[in-house]
Design goal:
Blueprint lengths: L4 E6 L2 H14 L4 E6 L10 H6 L7 E2 L7 H19 L3 E5 L3 H12 L4 E4 L11 H12 L2 E4 L2 H9 L6 E3 L3 H16 L2 H5 L7 E3 L4 H4 L2 H16 L4 E4 L2 H6 L11 E4 L4 H10 L2 E4 L2 H10 L3 E3 L7 H5 L3 E3 L4 H9 L17 H10 L1
Parallel strand pairs: 1-2, 1-4, 2-3, 4-5, 5-6, 6-7, 8-9, 8-11, 9-10, 11-12, 12-13
């Protein structure tokens, strides 16, 4: 009996992390063709992740790069369709909520190829977010939907999606458990930055509603500067699209506010693990902060990962300067884990078992 053939489509660093764990299990029992759309193409955002996560080189690198949402998604649709016509897979796997996700799903479904969506069912209920549009469309196109939490399963049910839905747990939790022992010997980021555990804040910002809206970005930067003036060391790995929006005079940071280039997955885990508080608008970083038991301040008005807020490890601050600074100043550890909200670290195996069956 011929092996099942699966095309996996990735394009952004969170997807590389998720795909690495699933691919490790999938390639034991099926043939995988890996497609990199090129949505993240900076070496610090792409190549280093493939190396650290021991991912095989992509079979196709579409080189789409940056652009407007319509331009980027349209170019991906065209190029992914060409790959799918050539490879004729049994299934297409897409991850998360990026333009690569929705382009992969649309390309597949128009060719009558079943779509598997990993990290399905997330909702912020904010349709102004491009990620929200991408995830809703992808969920409604998918045949198999693997949800990281029961909350996500319930979201799908409210939209009438009940067939092919599985609560698998979160593959990013698989990745964190797998890589935590490695960073103890492979990451020297704290020594390179000359910071000590629990003596710095870690900050990230990249979402469109924060970066493309000038007032929000200025408020976020002002809060980081305010924290630095209060004596906090703020480590800020700057996403390439964020750096483009920051004034030249601000790019070198200010005193204790330290702008650094994007870091690798191992280095990011090390920085997260040893931070006093994390400030972020990233969904993945919110979860990692929860798993690592580090207080998190989310620079948004809402979050898809409401479980982390209910557990007391995450606070929604929005983008108001005073609110952000106060949230950091009063940040404290949440309650202990009373249940495994995101699975037990075996999500990848669960997903592959269902897919093959």
């Amino acid at each position: 009996m011929p092996r099942m053939k699966v095309v996996s489509i990735v394009g952004a660093r969170p997807q590389f992390i998720k795909c690495a764990m699933v691919s490790r299990e999938l390639r034991k029992v099926a043939t995988e063709v890996l497609v990199h759309t090129g949505q993240h193409y900076d070496g610090n955002m792409s190549d280093v992740f493939f190396h650290e996560l021991a991912m095989p080189a992509p079979d196709y690198n579409l080189g789409v790069g940056s652009g407007s949402h319509g331009q980027q998604t349209g170019e991906m649709l065209k190029k992914i369709e060409e790959v799918l016509l050539k490879e004729n897979p049994d299934s297409v796997i897409v991850y998360g909520d990026t333009n690569s996700t929705v382009a992969g799903a649309l390309s597949a479904v128009k060719l009558h190829i079943p779509v598997t969506h990993i990290e399905a069912g997330l909702r912020s209920f904010n349709r102004h977010m491009p990620e929200e549009v991408n995830r809703v469309v992808t969920d409604h196109l998918s045949t198999l939907l693997f949800c990281p939490t029961e909350t996500a399963v319930n979201h799908l049910a409210k939209e009438g999606i009940t067939q092919g839905v599985y609560c698998s747990g979160d593959v990013m939790y698989d990745a964190l458990l797998y890589n935590l022992p490695i960073i103890e010997t492979r990451s020297s980021i704290l020594q390179r930055l000359m910071v000590r555990p629990k003596e710095y804040l870690l900050a990230t910002a990249h979402r469109a509603e924060n970066i493309d809206q000038r007032e929000n970005l200025q408020n976020i930067l002002a809060s980081f500067i305010g924290l630095a003036k209060l004596g906090e060391t703020v480590i800020f790995p700057v996403h390439p699209r964020t750096r483009k929006q920051i004034d030249i005079c601000e790019r070198d940071g200010l005193g204790n506010l330290r702008f650094i280039d994007p870091v690798s997955y191992w280095d990011m885990l090390a920085l997260e693990r040893h931070a006093k508080v994390i400030l972020t608008d990233s969904g993945g970083v919110q979860k990692e902060a929860y798993w690592l038991r580090v207080p998190c301040v989310t620079l948004r008005e809402e979050t898809e990962w409401i479980e982390t807020v209910k557990a007391g490890w995450n606070v929604l601050s929005g983008t108001h300067v005073d609110t952000i600074i106060e949230a950091v100043r009063t940040a404290k550890e949440g309650e202990g884990r009373t249940q495994w909200l995101f699975g037990k670290g075996d999500a990848s195996q669960r997903i592959v078992n269902v897919l093959i069956q």
